[in-house]
Write a structure and sequence with these properties.
By secondary structure, this protein is an alpha+beta fold. The two termini are 16 Å apart. The chain has helices at residues 10-17, 30-33, 66-71, 74-82, 85-92, 98-104; strands spanning 3-8, 23-27, 40-45, 52-63, 106-113. The radius of gyration is 13 Å and the shape is globular. The chain has one domain: Hypothetical protein (Archaeosine Trna-guanine Transglycosylase, Chain: A, domain 4, Roll). It has a 5-stranded mixed β-sheet.
């Protein structure tokens, strides 16, 4: 089991901690392509680096674009934050350049909070 580190916005970290968000979506870069089921990710808040949470990857799914990546789970993962699919999509599309999404795609990690 390997461990990785990723920064995350505090609003998403809070949703994961509260068991509302059970997937983490990222650009499928070469480093993230190495992440497998049972690996752990230490998620650290970009707003407050003293706040972090370790999660375990239980599954990994690849998508070609944001729309397809969030379609099935947007309500569970994002409704408390954005209240609509279009607002969610608009926000997520600001995270990575469109050409990078076309090149790498989006990876969705199914996650659970690590037991301490």
């Amino acid at each position: 089991m390997a461990q990785y580190r990723m920064n995350i916005r505090g609003k998403y970290l809070k949703s994961i901690r509260e068991h509302k968000k059970t997937h983490e979506y990222r650009l499928n870069t070469k480093e993230r392509q190495r992440i497998k089921a049972n690996d752990s990710i230490l998620l650290t808040s970009v707003e407050d680096p003293s706040e972090s949470l370790e999660v375990i990857v239980t599954k990994k799914t690849l998508y070609r674009c944001w729309e397809v990546a969030i379609l099935k789970n947007w309500r569970k993962d994002f409704f408390d934050t954005f209240h609509s699919f279009s607002k969610t999509l608009k926000e997520l599309k600001t995270y990575y350049p469109a050409e990078d999404v076309r090149k790498y795609g989006i990876v969705m990690f199914d996650i659970k909070i690590a037991k301490r």
